[in-house]
Amino acid sequence: MTILDGATDPTRLEPRPALEAREITKRFDGVHALENAGLSVRPGEIHALLGENGAGKSTLIKVLTGIYAPDSGTLLRNGEEIEFANVRVANHAGVVALYQELSVIPSISVAENILLGDQTPSRGGIVQWKTLRRRARAQLDSINQKIPLGMLAGDLSPVQQTMVAFARALAMDANVLILDEPTASLTDTEITDLFAVLRSLRDRGVAIVYVSHRLEEVFELCDRLTIMRNGQTIVTKDVADSHIDEVISTMVGRNAGELYPDRGTATTTVALTAKDLDGRRVKDVSFEVHRGEVLGIGGLAGSGRSELLRILSGAQKHSAGEITVGETTLPKSPGVPRALAAGIALVPEERRAQGVILGASIQDNIAVANISAVSTMGVVSGARITDITTRGMRDLQIKARTPRQHVSELSGGNQQKVVLAKMLARKPAVLLMDEPTRGIDVGTKAEIYRLIRRLAEAGTAVITVSSELPELIGMSDRILIMHEGRISGEVAAAEADEEILLAYCYGKADAHDNLS
Amino acid sequence: MTTSRNLGVEDATDVRAVPRRSVGQKLLSSGTVLALVVLILFFFLMRPDVFLSFTNVKNILYQVAILAIIAGAQTIVMVVGDFDLSVAATSALAGAVAASLMISGWPIALAIFAALIVGLLIGLANGLLIAYVNLSAFVATLATLTSVTGLAFMVTEGTTLFNLPPEFNNLGQGKFLEIPLPVFIAIGISAILWFVLRFTTLGRRWYATGGNVEVSRLSGVNVRRARLLAFTVAGFVSAIGGVLLAARLGSASAVQGEDNLLFSVAAVFLGMTIVRSGAANLVGTMVGVAIIGVMSNGLNILGVNAYVQQVVTGLIIIAAVTLSSLKTRER
User: Fold this and answer.
1) Which residue of B219, B229, B276 is the best one to mutate when testing the A interface, meaning the one whose CB has the most A CBs within 10 A?
2) Quick one: pLDDT at residue B16?
């Protein structure tokens, strides 16, 4: 285990780093966001940057790309000390960060996206379209992508958009690429394509910093890893010498312990019945979930699992079928208010776009889903809002200064807890959760698994959709797998393994028989 | 409009929102409030004998009363994340309808009632087009602005209607305790709107919808109905302003109060800068209205002509909003 040490000169022992940060300290309002943090990336490696939310990864990246000026510490580019006054300077020096949400400009063509700004070839202010297309094509060719240059970037799939962003970075002669959660919205095959491109870039000598919460990916793709905790760099080592459990406990700073709580015993009382549901993607889906049961739903992206939850929550219309909660059969396409009233609550997939109002306080967010509970005759009671908020914050251990703190200032895990708190305040009989732990750190993940189990023990029926098979197996009592809109398999979680689930995911109906 | 904004609950009157700072400090930290204070000081120093006299303060209040009402209507729509270009046209039509009915012999109360219903229906039409037909607020209200102005010309036959009943004119010109009635009416309406926005479930739903439509929908808010209601209320309130304006002028024309469209949007924008979240809020809007009123009155006193006043108004808006955004960037 090599502890990163800025004082010794590493150039004699190993290849000279393409980009190195030494003893970086950055404070905000007197609070240390980074304290003697460091990172050293060699040319031709994929280097994972790991840590829980709030560990300082984003701040470090922003220092590396000139968005933040560090309070102290040094940056070295190919061994030479350098300062990045702003993002443009960093980009000119070949250091480019790609963020998921901002990867392309949707309203302009692929070619223009690849050669943006200074890169656009022009003569006397007139764009040279031929040159533009030729250069853009060359960049796409270099990463083996066949994306039509004239297409609007907004019409591309997420992975194609990422590829266009890569091409743009290459057009800027970037040889240090920083990627923040690049796979978050990609399907499995798209991830495979992405990894192939990343490997080819690495083989061309590009240094890649890879930030991800998906440790499986890190172990598949990366050469070395650096773990951060509380603003400090804890360790840098070869992936080959690392073990996933050890990485997790280093990130968390204690033994990760058992990530998943023990399974419970579901009752035989049916909480919700779905009968012959049809939607845009969902076809002929029927199932039951019992009080006290955690039902996991898996499947590939696009298999209809999210749509199923949206139909059950009333957020999306369905063309046929029946939803029954307890004794009550809901009217067709009931709409969210009626589904909520019947006791079905949804924790949606996209936390920031669907779960919380970022610019509003915690208590205002919680109030939105509980307006009638906190009001009398149309008049809202501030005391009752504060009351349910403090209770929710205590029960879920939301880390915030006050109930009036803006949700945008919270970490991803705490934002997710706010979404949970606002739905749990309604005491739902059936809780639907779409990717409940996406993009949140390991410690909070474990908390959410325990919470789900606690809810089930109190009699709630919980339905969770997850694209991570270990999570599906770990937290559920029973698992349904969807394939092309239909339920392709059902397994008791205790008997499930990833192989069986994956076979169902690909629609092999006889998977279970063949494998067992 | 941005999609992520605050539920506006921590508005300028709220001490607890940010600990360790008093209301006064909070207000002063906003460029907009600072601009108002500077303006008042400036005009006071220029004309200490006139500017803060009882008569002049009363004048300012009288001058801004109707703008305050229309800006209140605009605030509601902007809370939901939209805006309404037809507020001033709606008010003009409402004034014209009331005037024309009274001239043809309708009882005053009934004529006013009919005018208010007309405003409500225009608002309802805006709301239906925007919330249910999914037109953009810009397109829908621009279209109603055009048609409504046309209707107002039809009602007035392109002229100015006058010789309205003195009891009606008294609504706009009468006084109570030396203070003109429209001031009381404006204060009353503002207080009601403030209460609705801040303390009712409807206000909560409006702010939630303006904060993030999809989050609100998934939380069980009937987003379409919320937007529909916002435009309907805005139409109704605009009509009140229009009727009052006709009473104050003792006449009605198709174009009276045109300025109130731009000034109402400006007032709401100025007001949005006084809360941390940047959401439309009634207290802020009233600060914005005060800035516009103080400026126009002060420049009048100094003898600056109306065209220059308009130029300066635009500059003040830029200055106040810039100051506030500088503060945000520091954070």
Assistant:
1) B219
2) 36
